[in-house]
């Protein structure tokens, strides 16, 4: 099971299913200049992203079907999947398009007809008028998003929610509406999105071991929950750029690609916002003739038909527009219609930079607080379920091991000094998952550790401030759907 933090130790939970699809050959690689874009321009983008955006996790640029630049900010890596959040919606849309092509449903089907046993006893006229196309366009007629709680089936909650507007007339970004699309595909095919897309999309594209969260009813969450690798995102974008054709096969109907990526709904008029350019079938329209799937905290699949390019990005940041601004300002103008002369010096520098990318580890070089090392500090009962903390030190000037106790079980996290140390851990309400840690004494009385859950956008910063026989523990997440700072906990030193 994979879960994602809304705050430092609160979660949005879902069951994850896995499918063992085989990995096919990757996209071909090429020098940037061969595909009409300068290495210097790409380097400018990467350096600006590394300096000004905190932080990108991965970046892949595809031009004319060739990967011309790719990089991962360690501890993130090419092999690791990354949670997509709402970028998952574009895959759900693709499943709907395939099911329509197979004659299992149509855009004009009324939503209620798929779930007569879960509809209200007296449905409103607007609910009865809601169609599959309204779900796809985020134009269900609802004024607020229906809740998704563990105590009631999500389909039933959606159908019980008020629909004050005529469907098709009111845009509302609606993740519950995308779940309904998943539930409809499940209903008409008898398969989850993961299983349905397996032989039709994931397997042909070589998307290896995708996972997708499910609702309590066992239905793929649809609007979020898919985890795949950066290159998998790029392949999906390249498929759309190629109008659904892949290695000689038409995987997705061209007509669906055109409709899904077109402006189906108006959603604003601000010319400088990439969220006001219109909405398709679970795709956003962009400035400069582009379109994209995107997800919270900076997960991107940007398709640029006019430039014959695709950009895949994963991130853990708060300002999503800033990423797109860098793309338009630095990469878009550099894409030329013809090949460029080789620039070995610039390409070598770009390659070196891409290979050396890393999230900033925790800095610090203060002397450890006397009496802190090796002493266990116990906390009173708290919502995080954190019972105790201990710092252990190895060799002189070696890494510190942060020992956290949750529910009577110790989690030992070796914190790299000036680097990231990978491992696995279970943090409170979160399930066991890959984690990388970095830590240092940032003051004579303070040890600070960064914990990166590197298959997600989340990085937690633990600050332990020692005062006499107490420790004050503060935890902050880099991003979240709610508050990112947790209330301070005070622990008492255990008697020796």
Characterise the protein shown here.
The protein is α+β, with helices and mostly antiparallel strands and 496 residues long. 24% of the residues lie in helices and 25% in strands. It is built from eleven helices and 24 strands. Strands 18-17-16-15-24-23-22-21-20-19 form a ten-stranded antiparallel beta sheet, with no helix packed on it. It has a six-stranded antiparallel beta sheet with strand order 5-4-14-13-12-11, sandwiched between helices. Helix 1 (39-52) runs antiparallel to helix 10 (320-331), helix 1 (39-52) packs parallel to helix 11 (344-355) and helix 2 (88-101) packs parallel to helix 6 (175-189). It is globular.
Summarize this entry quickly.
The protein is globular, with a radius of gyration of 24 Å. The chain is an alpha+beta fold and 496 residues long. Helix content is 24%, strand content 25%.
Query: Share of helix among residues?
Result: 10-25%
- Average pLDDT figure: 93
Distance between the termini: 39 Å
CATH superfamily of the largest domain: DD-peptidase/beta-lactamase superfamily
Write the layout of secondary structure elements.
Blueprint: E1 4-5, E2 11-12, E3 15-18, H1 39-52, E4 56-63, E5 66-72, E6 82-83, H2 88-101, H3 125-129, H4 132-136, H5 154-160, H6 175-189, H7 193-205, E7 211-214, E8 226-228, H8 230-241, E9 245-246, E10 249-250, H9 254-261, E11 284-285, E12 291-295, E13 299-304, E14 309-315, H10 320-331, H11 344-355, E15 376-378, E16 386-393, E17 400-406, E18 409-415, E19 421-425, E20 433-443, E21 446-452, E22 459-467, E23 470-477, E24 489-493
Helix pairs in contact: 1-10, 1-11, 2-6
